[in-house]
Amino acid sequence: AAMASLNAFFADGSRNSPQTPSRRTAVGQIRILSEQIANKIAAGEVIERPASVVKELLENALDAQATALSVSVSHGGKSLIKVTDNGCGMDREDAQSCLLRHATSKISDIEDIERIQTLGFRGEALPSIAAVSRLSLITRQPTAETGTSIRANGGAIESLKESVTSPGTTVEVADLFFNTPARKKFLKSEGAEYAAIADVFDTTALCFPGVSFCLYKSGIEVARYAASEKLLSRIEQIYDAAFAEQLHPIHLDKEAVAISGYIGTPDSTRVNRSGQKFFINRRPVRLLSLSWALDRAYEEFKARDRFPVAVLFIDIDPSAIDVNVHPAKREVRLLNERFIQDILIKAIKKTFAENGIFPRTSFQIPAGSSSLDTDYSGSSRLPSFAEIRE
Predict the structure, then answer these.
(1) How many C-alpha atoms does 196 have within 13 Å on its Cβ side?
(2) pLDDT of 259-317, one tens digit each?
């Protein structure tokens, strides 16, 4: 009788158990989203704040082989972001296609994803930016007599015409998030948004010392970094000479992994990780595993609540890194992460030893040394490395 009742239940699709609410749905409720809605959804992942716009536009300019970049922002990037480069530019057809989702010149087949060597590749940045702003793009190839000008409003192209302009590309992004008030209300103050833009600008400039960078805030020049062949010169431009003097060069090649850059002395630590910059294959990344390795290498040399500073470049086989983890491309996965951690720790400790820097716990006040006895006897404070060297 129970089986008969159960069979009757399944045979009659309109019957429902008293304990179970009806699961019937109307026919045709699943639909394909419009291009406009899809672009807004994608923009929510790629464009989080004005600094995201600056990052994507700078990456596009660098992929276009630009040697000079200019960034201008107003009201923390909320009202205007303008990025100008002297790169290869685009013809009329490419200029129009670049505002379409997943339109890119960086990859052409599935295998290319396994060997990404450009900063951008997803074909989402420009259409995502255009979907949530009033965008203007002017571009010209060096061999062309005239360029192309495009204006888009909320992702919809309003005008496409021929234009007289210099070689390269200029992108203006006005009224960011004007059509997505839910995202706009979560933006921080103009000062906080500008600070995020400046951090993206400086981080990108660190990665490409051979490119000149200029930043304008409300029409006033606030930073100009001349192109330089040396990374240390770019570090001095962004920070200062005193900061650069506290750095030691580091270099290591081992089993298809090359580590280079500069690390700070144990004296030049900070209260947070703001002084740590990591680049993998010239791409700025955030990796807790690398920060952990840095802390581990310094743990015998610094106070527990301090964080070391470093500008480190790691070059590996493109097939050993997955950059397609998040649309914003901030996070990556490494195939040989533990190996890179180990050699980074060893490289830092070797650099310290070569420069006469040893763990604080191993320092002993020499017996009979009146100056040291006078300065530190009866005190728990150990002398700094600068004092030890002197």
Answers:
(1) 18
(2) 999 999 998 899 999 899 999 888 888 888 999 999 999 999 888 889 999 999 999 98
Which residue type occupies 305?
D
The token duo for 240 is: 């200062």
pTM comes to 0.79
Nearest one of 113, 108, 135, 156 to 47, comparing CA atoms: 135
Q: Which two tokens mark 151?
A: 């204006």
- CA 185 – CA 343 distance, rounded (Å): 45
Q: Where are the alpha helices (DSSP H) in the chain?
A: 2-11, 35-46, 50-63, 92-97, 125-131, 181-184, 190-207, 231-238, 241-245, 288-298, 337-354, 370-376, 385-389
List the structure tokens of 60.
Answer: 């596009």
Give per-residue pLDDT as tens, 308-364. Answer: 999 999 999 887 887 766 655 667 788 888 999 999 999 999 999 999 888 865 444
Q: Which residues of 355-386 are buried (b: 16+ CB within 10 A; e: fewer)?
A: eebeebeeeeeeeeeeebeeeeeeeeeebebe
Calculate the CA dihedral of residues 205, 341, 251, 254 and round it to 10 degrees: -120
pLDDT tens track for 67-119: 999 999 999 999 999 999 999 999 999 898 888 876 665 545 555 555 666 67
Radius of gyration over alpha carbons of the chain, in Å? 27
